[in-house]
Amino acid sequence: MSETLYHYMRKAFSREAFGLSGDLAIFTPFSILSPPEETHGFILGRDDRGREVRVNPSKLPNMHGVIVGSTGSGKSTLARHILLQAQKMGIKEWVIDPHSEKSYTSIMDTRLELTVEKIYFMEHPGWSPEELASELSYYLEKIYAFPGYRSILREILAKCFEEKSLYPFERVKNEDPNLKRIYDDLRKLYSEDGFKIRELAEKNLHITFPTLVSRELHATASQILLLLLEGYMRSLGSRNRVDLIVVLEEAHLLKDYFLRLFKEIRKFGLSILAVTQLPREFDPRIFQLAGYVVALSGPESYIADIASLFSLGREEFDHIAFGTRGNALLFRSGDPRPRRIVLEIDPFVL
């Protein structure tokens, strides 16, 4: 990338950049001092000063994080590296993986193939029937792109959760082809003998899907599981430690949910790590609210997306624009300066 192209991209994107609120800290006297590094948490690698760099979600304002990178940049490898460290720290973990990557199976205790194995989502600790129906209907309307359906879905689902059965939905499914489509997908996931959220939350789970599952069914299954898990963790009470971390591949499919979840300032021991190669698909506020963001290397169009979200200096720009695989930028909430790091991945996950 030439000097001219660099300045062109900086000019094109600087006016629309969504910087962190702490960016103004660079103008304070403290900006000449190197910020102290975290001594606990997940080891990512080393910075340009040779210091070990860690992320400790428990110490950040928000426990949730994002990994962004282009195809082949090592997003899933980094996610597996973090999961392996979480295991050693006694943290439970889930991976929701639409691609069914075998590399995740090697580090997880249990594989759950949804639609083949089913869940019982009529038990929903932490949610009243009306609350869960309202939340789920909101996301189903967006997942299936059926505008105007939230109200009727909320009414139907509230009855289902109150009666602990899909029968109220079954009674009306043939009145509208769109309702039938949603019902048929719920039916593929649900069983009265299926796994309950209390059971699943105690396992290290690699959650996968058959090859021919639709995008909507994958998103619906992921959304139901995350809502159930969120309610369950909330029912256990507030706590400032990570008890369970969830890696969600293709996270842009649930972008609306993440915006709501990342706004939650209370901590219930749940940390979501969203993995995506499409940062432009996310609301920019998600990156502002995240406790940490790791941006891996990629092509010019991808770097332009990152530059529109964060204030990048020339050194940061070059680090992921020209660097080899393994170069990354770490943005942490409360630290206005991106950290240029070289990842040090546990060989076991390679």
UniProtKB/TrEMBL annotation:
InterPro entries: AAA+_ATPase, HerA-like, HerA_central, P-loop_NTPase
Catalysed conversion reaction: Couples ATP hydrolysis with the unwinding of duplex DNA by translocating in the 3'-5' direction; ATP + H2O = ADP + phosphate + H(+)
Domain of life: Archaea
Membrane spanning stretches: none
Gene Ontology terms for molecular function: 3'-5' DNA helicase activity; 5'-3' DNA helicase activity
Classification via Pfam families: DUF87
Ranges of residues in domain AAA+ ATPase: 61-296
Alphabetical list of PANTHER family matching this protein: HELICASE MJ1565-RELATED (PTHR42957)
Similarity comment: family membership: Belongs to the HerA family.
Name by which UniProt lists this protein: AAA+ ATPase domain-containing protein
